[in-house]
Amino acid sequence: MFLHLGGSSGKMGMLLIRRVGLFCRSAHLSPQSLEYRPIKKVMVANRGEIAIRVFRACTELGIRTVAVYSEQDTGQMHRQKADEAYLIGRGLSPVAAYLHIPDIIKVAKENSVDAIHPGYGFLSERADFAQACADAGVRFIGPSPEVVRKMGDKVEARALAIKAGVPVVPGTDAPISSLQEAEDFAKTYDFPIIFKAAYGGGGRGMRVVRDYEELEENYQRAYSEALAAFGNGALFVEKFIEKPRHIEVQILGDKYGNVIHLYERDCSIQRRHQKVVEIAPAAQLDPHLRERLTSDSVNLAKQVGYENAGTVEFLVDKHGKHYFIEVNSLTNYTMTFSKCRSLPELGLEQDKIQINGCAIQCRVTTEDPSRGFQPDTGRIEVFRSGEGMGIRLDSASAFQGAIISPHYDSLLVKVIASGKDLPTAATKMHRALTEFRVRGVKTNIPFLQNVLSNSQFLYATVDTQFIDENQKLFNLKPTQNRAQKLLHYLGHVMVNGPVTPIPVKAKSSSVDPVVPSVSLGEPPMGFREVLLKEGPEGFARAIRQHQGLLLMDTTFRDAHQSLLATRVRTHDLKKIAPFVSHNFNNLFSLENWGGATFDVAMRFLWECPWKRLQELRALIPNVPFQMLLRGANAVGYTNYPDNAVFKFCEVAKENGMDIFRVFDSLNYIPNMLLGMEAAGTAGGVVEAAISYTGDVSDPMRQKYSLEYYLKLANELVKAGTHILAIKDMAGLLKPEASRLLIGALRDRFPDVPIHVHTHDTAGAGVAAMLACAHAGADIVDVAVDSMAGMTSQPSMGAIVACTKGTKLDTGVSLDRVFDYSEYWEVARGLYAPFDCTATMKSGNSDVYENEIPGGQYTNLHFQAHSMGLGNKFKEVKKAYAEANKLLGDLIKVTPSSKIVGDLAQFMVQNSLSRAEVEERADELSFPLSVVEFLQGHIGIPHGGFPEPFRSKVLKSLPRIEGRPGASLPPMDFEALESDLRMAHGDEITPEDVMSAAMYPKVFQEFKEFTSKFGPVDCLNTRLFLDGPKIADEFQVELERGKTLHIKALALGDLNKSGQREVFFELNGQLRSVLVKDTAAMKEMHFHPKALKDVRGQVGAPMPGKVVEVKVKPGQKVEKGQPLCVLSAMKMETVVNSPISGIISKVHVNADSSLEGDDLILEITE
């Protein structure tokens, strides 16, 4: 709000008011001391932004400034802004130091201070302080001690208001001295009532009570807060006015009895009775009410002979009736007024003061609105303010590196915006708040932005219940804070090493792959256009009618699963994706999703599998995408309710998936049919895949004979599969077996496209796939040359070269294959710690004997070497073959292959032969996966379960009959989404819900990781795995048009908290992060933290000090019962019991200092 003062501008007039008060008195020194005496040195007996504001005004006037500070405020800015600064309250508590009058007077006398400014809070309303200044011959910048006594004592102020004819709220005539007096008042006036500190404000020592059950607890909390904040716990009681407006009138008085007002401001937007947003003038205020408020304020000031600046506070009820609350005889907003000159002499006359425009003040605090405005503490890692025309900032500890302590007010900065009207000022304020960047501590900025955008705030009136009644204000848009989180991640890796487990000691290559050139414009048409135009059935016909052999490229999924432990990141897939789109448009499909890649993306790469699918779809719009669906197990390793599988396929299709390769680890038809139906209902292409094992070319092996596969195929074709696939997961298809099997299938199903998948472990992959193609297969799986061979798929280049110029010609350019392969050859070096060649130097034809699937073969080899059993891998493979026979000769693919592997490891670890296992089956403790398989958890194997082995293992354990998932109740996705929103905020997508449905714990850990470390998928792979070296400079693209320029500068020494400070340069500015050294912290003692997933562990909701522990070990408590009281930033918080139970252990005492989430106590249900 601007005020016109006669012919001068409002701003100049207010500047005049601010300055003249510093030259002249305030408190009475003696009757003879009224003559003018210039002030040369001013002390501010306060801290923070108010101290700095006074210092700035003094500096403008050429007055020397003196700061005082507590031991806890050694690093605060107010002591640096003053010309001199002195410690007070040595050995006292943080608040008590600023309440210690003797120390303050001593410093003033010893350093020739002429006047003391009290600021607000602390001693500003203490008459004894004003008198102490007068007694010491030091001027008190404020009203006389008598006026401070009258108006600082809220009870006496009430009496004066009544005498002046100003309406007051019913309340006690004097401070109460017992709980009984409060009870008597409540009986007389009924609830609700409110306790208020008699000697202070700002929401401290204030509690609303609505019934007798709350009375005692709130009395104790109000008394304790008032005592801590003001050094006096005296309280008075008032009838609580429901939903009033809180209006304040600014007044100025001189010693000649002249009093004027500077109109009003609306302070109704409050939390815990403390102002959050203030508006001047009050919006939608009736002119007659404004007249009554201002005249009553002036009359009351004249009644008491008020001098200097002050604020008269009122409540206005819904009927427009106003009630006096108090007078703040402090100088929050203007400096004190001169006693040497009269108001008219200074040109300050009421009829010359007019309202012109509007101003809004927001208190930016270090509080978390989503947790009841709990104060947050810590180190400000980043601070950038919002400025510009119409914006004023008043702050103290708002700078990078500042430590926000729990001992004082949570105010960070006051932001004042001015404009011609409320909407204009609100727009400026919103813009300024948007420019702020505060990292390291939580702030209320998102909440303030919601307030400023609220239509009631902008165009109607608000009352003190505005925040409580507008819960949409708490729909906070989370700040991304991506840059700082990534610095935390990089620092963490630099201090503690990789976050993803590294199987071998190898470093990523220092060479980055170069992406081949890509032509501009849209990529050429591919088979996806056929699918989108003609649907799955038309697509299948087009594939069958196609001349030549079609290829599916597995480089984006199964190839790196087999060779690189599924660790290839989206970052490297995206780089080559445009090249694939433009040069391999005639591929049948790209296999790039599903199977193990889904959970590994979250579990080890800390990236969202759905985001991978979305981003690749945008970059490759023309080639169909294919995924691996584990039938009724979707992409998991367990059974899911049927509706979860259907929903998963639906969401996958919506995100760009085209072809669903549906298989079951036991070829169990009921499980496969469910997956096929789910994929088909979603609108996808259904590719039913028969998992291959055995050898159809060997007449001695009859369990999995040619007839077995033909019978399975017949059922799948009858069920409506669009494409029929053979999934040879171990690479067991020999060329002769390929001709027999594919030839028989082609003869039986002439119109159905046939797709064959194999692994090249034995080295016969290319020959087998060529045999399949000649026998009638339409599609075979390949991987680009540098990602092919061994346990991966056959070489793309070899197949392309061998069919070139024949009727099977793939139409794929060998030159483009070479370019594609070169990219992956270099990229593969980035994943050296995961490359199978670190331990496995070749494939092995013994796979025909042990039948280990490709990906599992690699994993088992890694595991054997990591356990020092590299020279015994032959025994591991032999045990695998024996375990397979024990379980009845299974189809082996995830998850059945894992079951066989678990049993094999069990046998090796316990030095058990197959015969010994069979003989002792009823006494051995088998791996859980083996037991659950025998119970029927993943279905029924071909030929049934092995007996008597099964019965000996299970004994009396229950058995599942039929399809395992059929008996599961439907999954409640709405409830799941609601739970996820409660845990992670409102930014939950349908894709998140499906991730949580498939992998609840993995998703939870993934969300916690990304919340802490940000979008690590933006980092290049070398940085992700190894972090930067000192002096490394690099760029990180967060999104199109937003690139971070980062340089790693230094790594600090270990501090007493077990942390190291890591220094970076970010976009040319110095940044640093504190990183816990996990190795060093193992040898240091810290207070235990509460585990969030343990219901009985109660942690501190915020940093603070324990005021009172209300329970003891062995005590029975009920849910909601108070357990202890914490104090932080002069606010007390009661910690209630989350459950009913018995207190088993208490970890704190009164006066214990806690950090957030520190364990307070444990409850046993």
From TrEMBL:
Its cofactor is biotin. Pathway: Carbohydrate biosynthesis; gluconeogenesis. This is Pyruvate carboxylase. The modification N6-carboxylysine is found at residue 727. Pfam families: Biotin_carb_C (PF02785), Biotin_carb_N (PF00289), Biotin_lipoyl (PF00364), CPSase_L_D2 (PF02786), HMGL-like (PF00682), PYC_OADA (PF02436). It catalyses: hydrogencarbonate + pyruvate + ATP = oxaloacetate + ADP + phosphate + H(+). CDD domains: biotinyl_domain, DRE_TIM_PC_TC_5S. Residues 549-818 form the Pyruvate carboxyltransferase domain. GO terms for cellular component: cytoplasm. The modification N6-biotinyllysine is found at residue 1130. Mn(2+) binds at residues 558, 727, 757, 759. The gene is LOC109112177. Residues 38-472 form the Biotin carboxylation domain. Transmembrane segments: none annotated. ATP binds at residues 154, 238, 273. Residues 1095-1164 form the Lipoyl-binding domain. One of its GO terms (molecular function) is metal ion binding. Catalyzes a 2-step reaction, involving the ATP-dependent carboxylation of the covalently attached biotin in the first step and the transfer of the carboxyl group to pyruvate in the second. Its EC number is 6.4.1.1. Residues 158-359 form the ATP-grasp domain. PANTHER family: PYRUVATE CARBOXYLASE, PYRUVATE CARBOXYLASE, MITOCHONDRIAL. It is an enzyme of class 6 (ligase). It comes from Cyprinus carpio. One of its GO terms (biological process) is gluconeogenesis.
